[in-house]
Amino acid sequence: MGLETEIRYLDDMKMVLYDKAWTRTAPNFEVYYMQRGIEEKNDLRYDITIIPPKMLGQEFAKTKGHYHIGECQELYIVLEGEGIFLMQKKGEGKIQDVYYVKAKKGDCVLVPPFYGHVTINPGSKTLKMGNWISKEYMADYESIETKGGLSYYYTQAGWVQNKNYEEVLKLHSEMPLKSMPRNLDFLKWSNPK
Ligand SMILES: [Fe+2]
User: Taking residues 95-102, what's their average pLDDT?
Assistant: First the structure.
């Protein structure tokens, strides 16, 4: 595509993984790939993320995770494979909501305002997804790094709670969108400096 591919290595994300015993001895390797700004339209940009099927110890491969700063939404579309989009809403001192969306090729998933999100590849095939987001958006990785990830991990044994959160809410699931919204103007966001 002629665009530079950013690589997220294991060493960049050890602090957000479940299986700490495994991370202590695992050699560094490439976990996932990002191509940002493949397309730009109406103040939005389109990125692609590719997560090969790999285990990170007992946990399935995933993105590192971040919150969006401000009231910024993001729309994902699954291009290949299957993904689980885990999202949680940040509140004053505690998480206000946590849910996941299972999505397969052609499905879309919206990340609402103030939700941090992680995408997991739970399958044996490569997960490839595209996303539209404001060109002005800024990410907050630190809030998730300091907690060692979102409030749940997806492991070989299923969902496991992250004990770094004082209170972990019950996890619920939501359905993906079955098609791309026609108008993406609702994704526009201006940084309120
Ligand atoms: Fe995001």
Answer: 97
The rounded Å distance from CA 28 to ligand 1 centre is 24
Rounded to the nearest angstrom, the distance between the alpha carbon of 111 and the centre of ligand 1 is 7
* Sign of the dihedral through C-alpha 162, 91, 61, 181: positive
pLDDT in tens, 152-165: 999 999 999 999 99
Query: What is the Å distance from ligand 1's center to 163 Cα?
Result: 24
pTM as predicted: 0.95
Query: Is residue 193 scored above 60 in pLDDT?
Result: no
The residue ranges of every structural domain in the chain are: 6-176
- CB atoms within 5 A of ion ligand 1 belong to 74
Burial class (CB in 10 A: 0-12, 13-18, 19+), 44: buried
State whether CATH 2.60.120.10 applies to domain 6-176: yes
